[in-house]
Amino acid sequence: MKSINILSFLVLSSTLSLVAFAQSFSSENPIVLPTTCHDDDNLVLPEVYDQDGNPLRIGERYIIKNPLLGGGAVYLDNIGNLQCPNAVLQHMSIPQFLGKGTPVMFVRKPDDGDVVRVMTVVYIKFFPKITSLLCVNETVWKVNDEALVVTGGKVGNENDIFKIMETDLVTPEGSKEYRLLHCPAHLGCKNIDVNFKDGYPRLTIVDDDKKFTPFVFIKA
Question: Hey, which residues does 176 pair with through a beta bridge?
Fold first, then answer.
């Protein structure tokens, strides 16, 4: 009989200890079970803002401008006697390169939202005053074999993907400055810079991660 009482006491003590242990975890130290959801899946990237502090929106028109002293707006021009203009250049504060720029539109798949966020896929499309119907579909940015940004790309082509990245720079008015990157799928991103090529200030891709031209976005 004594052995049965002792056994019962031990079982009761063990049960009470387990209950106390469980209560301590459920109230003060809850156990978080692993799930199949990753933090990155719920990560909301910062919005890209225009010069007035409003989020950039898919489908709206903007002027891309270099805010540095002597810089200017990005524009489309025909500098090679081609059937359609395809050179992506930057105006400058010198007589032969003065201008107001060519409006662009950021586009992508409709289900990705209507706000442009940093380091997300966008395609960049000019909206120039084109009189030839042959050139209407030749306005999407791409990068050619000479590392020059030109038009003739296609929305949806993985080689014609661009992204916008934040910088630590701000204009004297307090607007955020950004860098543009060419980011073909399955390859690393490269900065967009402005360099003279054949006498013209051309947008080009560069291998140096520290070399880039800052840009702001102005609602057109």
Answer: 170
Name 193's Cβ contacts closer than 8 Å, sequence gap at least 6.
203, 204, 205, 206, 211, 212, 213
| Each residue's pLDDT expressed in tens, for the chain with a length of 220 residues | 444 444 343 333 444 343 343 344 333 333 333 333 334 456 789 999 999 999 999 999 999 999 999 999 999 999 988 899 999 999 998 888 999 999 999 999 877 889 999 999 999 999 998 768 889 889 999 999 999 999 999 999 999 999 999 999 999 999 999 999 999 998 999 999 999 999 999 999 999 999 999 999 999 9
Check: CB of residue 106 under 8 Å from CB of residue 163. Answer: no
26 φ/ψ sector (left φ>0, alpha ψ -120 to 50, else beta): alpha
DSSP, collapsed to helix, strand or coil, labels residue 187 as coil
Strands 200-206 and 190-197: antiparallel
Q: Which CATH code is given to the segment(s) 39-219?
A: 2.80.10.50
* Residue 40 φ then ψ, to 5°: -65, -30
Task: Give yes or no for a contact between 201 and 92, defined as CB atoms under 8 angstroms apart.
Answer: yes
Task: Please state the domain extents for the chain.
Answer: 1-33, 39-219
Count other C-beta atoms under 10 Å from residue 112's C-beta: 13
**Separation between Cα atoms, residue 9 and residue 4, nearest integer Å:** 9
